[in-house]
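Exercise 7 asks you to align residues with tokens for two separate proteins.
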Amino acid sequence: MPSPAPTILVFDSGLGGLTVYREIAAARPDANYVYLADDAAFPYGDMPEDALITRILHVIGKAKAEHRPDLVVVACNTASTLALKDLRAQYQVPFVGTVPAIKPACAQSKSKRVTVLGTQATVSREYTRALIREFAQGCEVDLVGSSRLAAFAEAELAGDPVADAAVAAEIAPCFVDESGRRTDTVVLACTHYPLLAARFERLAPWPVAWLDPAAAIARRVTELIGPAQSAKAGAQARLLFTSGKTPSPALRKSLAGYGFKPAAAGAPEV
């Protein structure tokens, strides 16, 4: 007799975690999903660290009590590097975090020049620098922080894309050509950024590998809760906003592309 379908909670500051949800849902189509976007506090980089940790623990704790997930995916680099340790200590449920994919990036780089593109909070955190010290493997690793790209990605989903020039300006520092070596790998250290991947590729001054951790996160999820019991879709996939907002028609259309019905979006403040 097959086991009951698990419930997986996917959490992010906004809608960037949809890039992670998409991979997990493909690996476990039989699971039930709750996607929780903490848009009431977006962007996280504007909050002091102590206040942000307190908020993340509160929001995820409340969601855990309400939805009783079998596993929680923190699909946010900032939240993971800041609060994952506290989440695991406080709540008795498996957590899968999202951290900059520096180890695989440095392992695959041919030129040995890698860029980590993240939010200002992620690239400035000691956690990220410790990953570089441990896994650089002789690579030169450049850190590029953007305070605008996550909002650009949210605008893209909402049907209001920013101009190419604005995107190009944000990614330009990723491309370094010095001493006969130029960047060949860029780590997307914010789950919002893969939403803009097609534009990054088109606007890049030369081709690079854009490293998206979503597939690796999905593999970790299946390691913890097992492979799909059925190819049939789960009973429900709900998308909730902590602001309680009603998505615009354009955003509803984008959400439908990820399998969320318009009526499923929207939730009270948590």
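Second protein for Exercise 7:
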Amino acid sequence: MNIADICELLETSYGKPVCSPSYGPLDELILTILSQHTAAVNYNRAFANLRERFGSLEAVRAADVQAIEDSIRIGGLAHTKAIRIKRLLEEVRARFGVLSLDVLADMPDEEARSLLMDFDGVGIKTASCVLMFSLCRPVLPVDTHVHRISIRLGLIEPSINAEAAHHELGEIVPDELTYSFHVNLVTHGRRVCKARNPACDVCPLLELCPSGKRFMFMS
């Protein structure tokens, strides 16, 4: 299946996304931690609260876990995330002497992703998100939407889990299409190709999707 055709159809429906980083790698990593298991409006507010209360990452690192937890409570799982954020900042400071991950900018993609995954609790999806959204690297994060739709489109086998899919899809999605592919598949998964009751009758990818044709036949 032609990835370019998929991206073109999705861009016709949702627009062509352009990578425009809002944060550096370390801030993006903290934001990604806050994003886990919560809605965008909540994790963005939690991140804004964290920045407003402490003013700097050094102040966050020096704060106790309870204070961090209080500031990010709206994002859910606040205690767990507060521990992870404080531990992360301490690890970064110990390793690099400064609270910065700007060193990633000079590394090849896989080396940068491996460095991020060395930090406690940072998996391949989180590391890929940091590289894509903060540095515009062609490193594809595979979230639940990208994973589900890629299986339905026949791009990967149903037996491939999300972690393995990072490597499988990374091999077939061209670098120049990685950002568009990820962003628009997430949008498509939220609006149309849902886990339950996908709206195949209005799907722009229906003609390319073997699963969609089966769903339509069964309905």
